[in-house]
Design goal:
By secondary structure, the protein is of the alpha/beta class. It has helices at 23-36, 67-75, 88-101, 113-116, 149-158, 172-184, 195-199, 209-216, and strands at 56-61, 79-84, 106-109, 125-131, 159-169, 188-190, 222-228. Strand 2, helix 3 and strand 3 (106-109) form a beta-alpha-beta unit. Helix 1 packs across helix 3 (88-101).
């Protein structure tokens, strides 16, 4: 039995800005970000927000520099993607590549995903990726971890039946934390059957800079997959 204590509805507690932005990056934040940012308030039809028809919409929370998200956007132009990243430097880096390559199957959110999820229509997402989130390793900090009973409930509401949730981390304690909550959830089925399933990167995986750091420091990553139950 898990016992998550949420002080409020937030789940993001990290930095929002690092080093000063270059002029080109500032221009992207001032002009491109408002154009691609999701609207405020309830969002009844995610697919209608994209400039071309899309077959489904997928969400990546905390995309960092955007390496993984950009790769998925390139390989699946028929899918609409929502990228969430409150760290403004990461958002600027991502927008620069997306604009340079002319990628249009993207909308973004530079706020807290835990406050965004309740605004999405139920069953509107095909998949959610949470890759290398901040582990908040100290015991007193663990209530800040993004994965909780509450956020899994938000995921379940937003995902269609059979929709996929993926979680990757190089921190064993956070992997165990997430798995225990998935197994206790009435909404998800963990699909991995043997160690090789969760030790093997997802199909088409691209190594992010966070994973590269983990490899250099001798940590082994885990790649969990769960599906939203039909009922």
């Amino acid at each position: 039995m898990t016992n998550d204590v949420d002080q409020d509805e937030r789940a993001f507690f990290g930095r929002r800005k690092g080093k000063a932005l270059r002029d080109g990056q500032s221009h992207l934040i001032e002009h491109t970000l408002p154009r691609l940012r999701l609207p405020e308030g309830e969002i009844a039809d995610l697919e209608a927000l994209f400039p071309q028809p899309v077959e489904a919409v997928r969400l990546e929370i905390g995309f960092g520099g955007g390496e993984h998200l950009l790769m998925r956007m390139r390989e699946s132009p028929q899918i609409g993607f929502i990228g969430v990243e409150p760290f403004i430097n990461g958002m600027a880096k991502f927008l620069a590549v997306a604009e340079r390559e002319g990628l249009t199957n993207i909308r973004v959110w530079d706020g807290d995903a835990a406050l965004l999820l309740p605004r999405l229509a139920a069953g509107s997402l095909d998949a959610i990726d949470l890759l290398y989130p901040d582990p908040w390793p100290k015991r007193r900090q663990r209530k800040r971890r993004f994965v909780s009973e509450r956020t899994l409930g938000l995921f379940a509401r937003a995902l269609r039946p059979g929709g996929r949730f993926r979680f990757a981390s190089d921190i064993d304690d956070y992997v165990g934390w997430t798995l225990s909550r998935l197994l206790a959830s009435p909404d998800f089925d963990w699909t991995d059957e043997r160690p090789s399933d969760w030790r093997t990167p997802y199909p088409g995986w691209i190594r992010t800079r966070y994973e590269a750091k983990a490899v250099r420091e001798g940590r082994i990553s885990s790649y969990l997959t769960a599906l939203r139950r039909a009922s």
